[in-house]
Specification:
This protein is of the alpha/beta class and 331 residues long. Helices cover 43% and strands 17% of the residues. The chain has a domain of 231 residues: Rossmann fold (3-Layer(aba) Sandwich). It has a seven-stranded parallel beta sheet with strand order 3-2-1-4-5-6-11, with helices on both faces. The model has no long low-confidence stretch (mean pLDDT 95).
Length: 331
């Protein structure tokens, strides 16, 4: 199978590229090394793909999904991909409040350009990375795909919901087979440095205070990277089957278990052997108080079954951090 993977240098994208190459797929990665966090971090993410075991099945194009010429180069390098996996996006609830127009341009216009490029080149199958953030004000917990998701709580959430809607339009008008995957708080080795688990680990290990918004009782459905990759690969395989032709689907991919912020901090502190210092701050606008995935539909259709609980996942993340995986010196 030939796969074009946007956002390939990111946390999830680089893990997915490794998994797909390791099982023999030909993967063309596409990424613009956006300055939201350091280019060096993303280059480390891609380093293992240069290994002899994967290099022959891996190609990379640097470019921007909002640039038609860059997209043309990526599709040409992929030489007629069977499936496009579209992960590229600006992420983050709080930054989106400060830069809503930039998020709209990248996440909505960029997604439309990817879909138009697929149509122009006869690519019929797409897997699109959405987010649990699409569940907004008034959504019932646990979140189910049948929720209409009418009231997104942040510009980021609105752009991800818009991405699902323009994907449906492409399916409706052009017959594209599209699977939208709603990721729930993904973590693990190589997680983005701005996200809570990585940030808390870094600060606790350095003896610095961690910012906690609200009273610590807010909860998230944390999903370990290996489980997410299992779900994405299953969606790629589903799209590649004849049953993927011209079908539009939406699935939750989550751990299907909630953990409060206070419990998360306790787990990280225990894994590092260091006591956390907490700086209490007011609730942040745009944040959902609770997230919780109902994964019954993904279980039925994709065989998705999260295996790594938060205790094991945090232990694995802490081990990666201690080994110098986050770029900090070991000692």
């Amino acid at each position: 199978m030939k796969i074009l993977l946007t956002g390939a240098a990111g946390f999830i994208g680089s893990h997915l590229a490794q998994r797909l190459c390791a099982r023999g797929e030909r993967v063309t990665g596409f990424d613009n090394f956006d300055a939201f966090y350091g280019r060096d971090v993303k280059q480390r993410n891609l380093a293992e793909l240069a290994a002899p075991t994967t290099a022959a099945r891996w190609a990379f194009v640097e470019g921007d999904i909002t640039d038609d010429a860059d997209l043309a180069r990526a599709f040409a390098a992929a030489a007629g991909p069977d499936v496009v996996v579209h992960l590229a996006a600006l992420a983050g609830v709080r930054p989106s409040i400060a830069q809503p127009l930039r998020y709209q341009h990248v996440n909505v216009t960029g997604t439309m350009k990817v879909l138009q490029a697929c149509r122009a080149r006869g690519v019929r199958r797409v897997v699109f990375a959405s987010s649990s953030s699409v569940y907004g004000v008034g959504s019932e917990v646990p979140f189910r795909e049948s929720d209409p998701c009418r009231y997104p709580a942040s510009p980021y959430a609105a752009t991800k919901r818009a991405g699902e809607l323009v994907a449906f339009t492409a399916h409706h008008l052009d017959g594209l087979g599209i699977t939208c995957l709603r990721f729930f708080t993904v973590y693990g080795p190589r997680q983005r440095p701005d996200l809570a688990i990585h940030k808390f680990t870094r600060l606790i290990d350095a003896g610095q205070p961690i910012p906690l918004f609200g009273d610590g009782s807010a909860s998230r459905d944390y999903t370990f990277i290996d489980d997410i990759i299992d779900g994405v690969v299953a969606a790629v395989d589903q799209q590649h089957q004849p049953s993927g032709e011209g079908v539009y689907r939406v699935y939750n991919l989550g751990g299907s278990r909630t953990t409060t912020l206070l419990r998360l901090v306790e787990l990280i502190s225990d894994a590092l052997g260091r006591k956390a210092k907490v700086q209490w701050l007011p609730d942040q606008p745009g944040d959902l108080r609770h997230t919780h995935a109902d994964v019954a539909l993904a279980g039925r259709d994709l065989g998705f079954s999260p295996k790594i609980g938060i205790e094991e996942g945090i232990a694995r993340f802490a081990a990666w951090w201690k080994s110098g995986g986050g770029g900090q010196p070991t000692g």
